[in-house]
Design goal:
Layout: H1 2-23, H2 32-47, E1 54-55, E2 58-60, H3 63-81, H4 91-107, E3 115-116, H5 118-152, H6 158-162, H7 166-194, H8 204-227, H9 232-259
Antiparallel strand pairs: 1-2, 2-3
Helix pairs in contact: 1-2, 1-4, 2-3, 3-4, 3-5, 5-7, 5-9, 7-8, 8-9
Protein name: Inner membrane protein YpjD
Organism: Bathymodiolus azoricus thioautotrophic gill symbiont
Length: 261
């Protein structure tokens, strides 16, 4: 429990320092090392809270566990990406969400849920990794939308001024979208391989919604590659596709574990 508190504080402090940098006129990031150390500490202590995942006969993946693990993975991927790409501004969105996932785990811990085998767990881990990459693409689309609004209105503030150029922002968004889409494809394939009866396990609605999201992402990626689709419509499509995917996994787990259990 104390590890969760430490991680929450570290995530929020890092987000606060990032917000301070992006909203002030100072071009030099004085607290860059502090943010690096805080996030390093946060993701390590967050990871140490996952000891209750592993059981003697499999892996326990309840709603709170899954949300916490997904948020941790998003934070880790962002932290690693920020070492080589200009994506630091995403931390203003991502790190508070990681803290929120830990708060949710503390307030509403998992009390019900089935233990899944290691083969199914590999499918779940792959799915959550896909969700994490797609979540980063969605966060990037949110920043891109804000950036477009302010640039079109010719309202330049320190935050907008410190963001990368629009083309760079868009390229990073589609890179995350493509990799997330490939992993989502693999997760759907492994799901069909490892899961025997979708109806008996109440997975038909989850699978259907995941396929709908997959189609949205597939059309968007090929449309961008073949026809150069970009702009407001692509941002909306990414956000709609991810919303469907979010409902598919976490929405279905919430209904099955919290409402119907």
């Amino acid at each position: 429990m104390f590890l969760s508190y430490f991680a929450i504080i570290a995530y929020l402090l890092a987000a606060l320092l990032l917000m301070r940098f992006f909203t002030q006129d100072n071009a030099q990031h004085k607290h860059q090392k502090s943010v690096f150390l805080l996030i390093s500490f946060a993701v390590i202590t967050h990871a140490l809270t996952f000891t209750n995942f592993w059981m003697a006969n499999g892996v326990f993946f309840g709603l709170a566990n899954s949300a916490s693990f997904a948020a941790w993975l998003i934070a880790v991927l962002l932290f690693l990406s920020s070492l080589s790409k200009p994506v630091h501004a995403l931390g203003i969105l991502v790190y508070p969400l990681a803290a929120l996932s830990l708060v949710f785990s503390l307030l509403f811990p998992d009390t019900a849920g089935k233990i899944i085998s290691l083969s199914i767990a590999s499918h779940v881990f792959l799915s959550i990794t896909a969700y994490a990459l797609l979540a980063l693409a969605v966060c990037q689309s949110v920043l891109l939308k804000i950036q477009k609004i302010y640039l079109h209105a010719k309202k330049i503030n320190p935050f907008i001024n410190k963001l990368p150029p629009l083309q760079t922002m868009e390229r990073i968004m589609f890179q995350g979208l493509r990799v997330g889409f490939y992993l989502l494809t693999l997760s759907l394939i492994t799901g069909f391989i490892f899961i025997d009866d979708f109806f008996a396990q109440h997975l038909i609605h989850k699978t259907t919604l995941s396929l709908v999201a997959w189609i949205i992402f597939a059309v968007l990626i090929f449309g961008h590659k073949l026809f150069g689709w970009r702009g407001k419509q692509t941002i909306v499509a990414i956000q709609v596709g991810f919303s469907v995917l979010l409902v598919a996994y976490f929405g279905s787990k919430f209904v099955l574990e919290r409402l119907l259990s």
